[in-house]
Protein 1
Amino acid sequence: MPGLDSLARKPFREPWSGAEGYRLFYNENLFLPREYYVELYRRLGDPEDTRFYSDPRNMEARMLLAKHLRIDPEMILLAPGVDALLSIIADAAKVLGWRVSVPWPTYGMYREKLAARRVPFEEPILEDSWRRLPLDRIRGDAVIICSPNNPTGHTYPRDTVEELLDRGYSLVVVDETYADYAGESLLDLVYKYDNLVLLRSFSKAWGLAGARIGAAIGQEKAIAGLEALSDPYGLPLQSRRLLAAALELKHYVEKSIRETVEARERLYRGLEEAGVKPYPSKANFILFESTWAGDLLERLASRGFLLRGFEGPLGAHLRVTVPPSPILEGFLEALKETLEEVEEYYRW
């Protein structure tokens, strides 16, 4: 009989753990001002409330988010982050005996959650420079996609996603973690398709990565099925109150989104001018390609700019979070200087 050790996998470690520099690898919102967080914590309420159990279904928080999204609260399941929701979805796939399709490249946690549960899955390669779903090669019972996609930054056309939904998969999960930056969402489609579940995060545009707040959105039967596999009291009291406070302070978030989109365009142009190949993005990050990606990653880190690197087919690519000024200008200057150094080094 196998023991728990047979389930052991390489533990997750934060990139650049212990390194000093600008965190341009996690796609955190770097535009929200400190006063936003001060106001958030002023609204946390009586600290003694932490003593008690409360609201096992997170209904008060669900109602607040439902009002914000203009949907029914029973169409929402809250959990400590999108990753926790992915665990629930992977559990559902295991229980129901599904085979899952995860078009690649995309967010690596989909693979991790499925593999840990030994759920069979396939990773058909995205077409057209990793920007188009390979509809004819997507097989199985369920599909997980990300739009805007991480790490490429593109969104999938609505008609393409609808074609996917019309093919009769038991479940199509669309991870919209970065949708706030895209200015578009498939939220209205949850009323049309009972096999659609959207995932939304408060870690990115809303700047609450440390609070771990994620939401699954779908028709009531689908959400009820996922909730049956979730834990009661799944979202801590402090996270629920931070969510409520953030919704009250959404003007800070909306302003930061506008600033991020504007800076994203400047970053894209700057990357082109520096001589690397950026991918058009609707998220708060840009993926770019360079022959010297590995060298750039290390040399930029030594200059205080910590980016996300990749291995395998993505090995010639780096991903950079969109930063505010003057970090943006400093990064672009460091990139140009580093490229000149690397090219000079390999020239000899």
Note: Residues 250-274 form the longest helix (25 residues).
Protein 2
Amino acid sequence: MSQQLEKLTELLRTHLVPLPPGKARDSYGHPNFPQYRGVLGTDRISSHDHVLGFEMGQHGQIRNASSIHWKLKLEERHIVTDLVYYGRDIDSIMPAPLAGIPELWKRFVWVHAAQMDLVEDIGRNRLLGSAFGQYRDNNGLAYGQQLAPGLEKGALLSPPLWTPTTKAPPGHHDEPLEADDVETRYPQHRGLTLLVLGVMNEETKCLGKAEYCDSKFEFGWIRPPEYQQPFIAVCDEIGSFDSSRIRRAQDMGKADWFDRPVDKDWLRWKLEALGIKGLDPQNPEHRKQAKQLRLTSDEQEELEILSFESLRITTGLTLREFQMEVLKIPRWQVS
């Protein structure tokens, strides 16, 4: 952790209410506004359910920007999200010692404190990852859904496929669930997943720089003052380098397009070559070994370049442009 981010974390822990952290983000309650939750994007990265021993510079800023971008696009379509304050507006309810800090404007958001549904939802435009593995090994059945015969890896799915998984606690792996069973428990999820994915497809097609092969979503229930009853909302991270499979539009006609990720698949594959798949996140010794895995300096640089590129090709803005135009941070305070 950088010295600046370490000092910020100390300040946040002093003036807000620390909540259990995630793998790559820290969460906070507000002492005076319990209906809100603060989320800080750190530069931590994880893979295969391990928090790694190295970080990615500005990655927390990039993931924060991606999520804000897509939540604003959804709200334009009257799709409810958990987003409340972002960019300079976070100071609206920040305790005084935390106000006016540009690094927080870049990394921190206030969201509605949601009651989360205990399932994760993946919307798939392409037959990749675990869905392709299930399709290949189960006579065309993926997540309990029968698909057309003869599909190859990376096949375009029309309509897109909804595949739910468990929402595993830290250190555990998300497990596939039967779609029909989940739809019985959470009847809104299939439609909302495909609706959100549809918005992302429309926006990226219009931009013409990227394609989302699949993307993970989480939904929860919020009750803002203007609602008389709880309402389901798009929560958590959305459309980011970490939560999606992203490919360049210019690569999609190439035979090996699925091997050209602009997302965390690139890192996963590098770490698999170093043996991370054989390390159990429940084993303390294995966790220690995972933290010792390292990329070469050239690989680390390429990973960070891909992270920046993922934001640019999915939003049409560089990180610097996004922070000035959307987060309203003055030019001289943007690195």
Note: The radius of gyration is 20 Å.
Protein 3
Amino acid sequence: MEKVEIGSKISDCRRYHRLLKLNSYKGNGNRVYSQTSRQKLNGVMVIRMNEAIILAGGEGWRLKPETWTPKPLLKINKETLLDKQISWLKTRGFQNIIVASDKDGLTTLDVEYSVETNKLGTGGATKRAFQKIKGNIAYVMNVDDLVFYNPKELFDYAGKGAAVLLAKPILPFGKVTLQNDRNVIRFERNPTLEFYVSAGHHVFKRKIVERHFPDEGDFEFSTMQILADKRILLGYVYDGMWLTINTMKDLIRAKTFFGK
């Protein structure tokens, strides 16, 4: 697989677009992966514990007033959104899972909590949660971004310190093509757009988090562009199903998908 540096200007802080062409990977959603990753370094076998941070501090304001349930506790059929993400990581061999939130007691599954008394944003929450990471690298993901691949693949793109999973977004509206500014000559319902956005899944090395992440604030606003400017951020194109839970319509879609 080709690895591509992200280095051009990123126009949208939250959806740092990057036009890339990469080979895609489709993971096996049913496979149970080993709990450690093994690689040789100078002829010595190094065993890395697979660790992850789930950013779960969202209140789900765009889901209100239809529901006042905090986003991590939204039910997708019989599981909460948080439990579904934890189970996804555990079946793929992740051992040390940190839930970064403003409260604990969100799950009965075996996790650790990184609790923030004041809202720290995604950058500050990640930086605090890294204090509970035992190794020097971790998978960092949003609780509301559901993907279907082997997350360990993203570690291969973090050699320089940072990697981000990329996907093409689907326009939530009908796209119209006009002729002479008035004649509709083409109508496309929910087309896939021809640029990439962050799918909310990342891998960061500890040194990157300690050096570049803010104590308070979202890392999407400034840190990602800094990493791109330094040519240490690599993007990995994912072309599988991506469910992001931001609105009630998104939640219904996810429930329908998992209910099949």
Note: The helical segments are 81-90, 121-129, 206-212, 223-229, 248-258.
